[in-house]
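Quick one:
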Amino acid sequence: MLLEKPQAETTAPEAQHHARPAMVGRGKSILVVDDDPDLRDFIYWTLFPLGYDVNQAESGDECLEKMQKRRFDLLLLDLRMPGMQGMEVLEKSRALHPGTCVILISAYADWPDYFEAVSKGARDVIPKPLSSNELMRVVWAALSGGEPPADGSAGSNPSTSPRGGADDRPSAAT
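Output:
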């Protein structure tokens, strides 16, 4: 199949409404840590097009290895994984890079998990399944330094956080 060369972008005022959206994540790095490859890919393909530098790890050990080699702006970290659990990874990651923002994700999070994670330095715990809209909102709020809305609609409640449409969520819960 022969691909056509893209035409040069125009900056004329009448063409600006057709321009590519701003790359909101430019320069921000994210490490997605989850044993579910489908969820890692869902997160990657939701955030990468926005300009985020999205990296993946399938275990806590792999996460810490990657963190020893470079600093990430944000960890999206599964609470329950084979081997090292999310809470342990949270503690060790905070020791390595205290400035890295950490958001835990889990199908099993309850209030005790939420309070433990926040007391150990996590910014938030968000429930699975994730919608792309919820994911983008929570990541943007975490990396922009903004606070989630006071009503909890940015995922700060592990049991009642509103989500976008069900059609953009992965089906597997881990």
